[in-house]
Amino acid sequence: MLFVTTYKLKPHMSRDDVKELMESFAENGSAPGTIAHYVNADGGGGVVISEADDAAANYRNTLNYAPWMELDSTVVLTIDDAVPQIMDLLSD
Predict the structure, then answer these.
(1) What is the pLDDT of residues 63-76, one digit of tens each?
(2) How far, in Å, CA of 92 to CA of 88, rounded?
(3) pLDDT tens sequence across 10-52
(4) pTM for the structure as a whole
(5) Which of 5, 61, 8 lies closest to 32 in space, CA to CA?
(6) Does the structure show a pLDDT above 80 at 8?
(7) Sequence-separated contacts (24+) of 26-32 with Cβ below 8 Å
(8) Spatial distance between the Cα atoms of 7 and 23, rounded to a whole number of angstroms
């Protein structure tokens, strides 16, 4: 499964909060199967694209960062996987 996870840092984080977040990231790292991790240029969040067969492992990793972030994960399909499904639906 492909996942797109967007995250936003919680508002009004102190310098110490950011330090704790970075320490957690150094200890726990990215989600299993991370393909790409982009940080928003405004410094307020980012996007992670990952591929994993085990949603629970991604969830477990998400819990590491929940104290500092609001996270939203969505299962997605590649366009190559989606178009045949759309065309099948339209053929009825």
Answers:
(1) 999 999 999 999 99
(2) 7
(3) 999 999 999 999 999 999 999 889 999 999 999 999 999 999 9
(4) 0.85
(5) 61
(6) yes
(7) 28/61, 28/64, 28/65, 30/61, 31/3, 31/5, 31/57, 31/58, 31/61, 31/62, 32/57, 32/58, 32/61
(8) 17
Residue in this structure with the two tokens 């972030």, named with its chain if needed: 69
- What's the token pair of residue 5? 């996870």
27: left (phi over 0), alpha (psi -120 to 50) or beta: alpha
In this structure, what DSSP letter does residue 17 have?
H
Contact (Cβ atoms closer than 8 angstroms) between residue 62 and residue 31: yes
Task: Spell out the residues 6+ positions from residue 54 whose beta carbon is closer than 8 angstroms to its own.
Answer: 32
One-letter amino acid at 64 equals: N
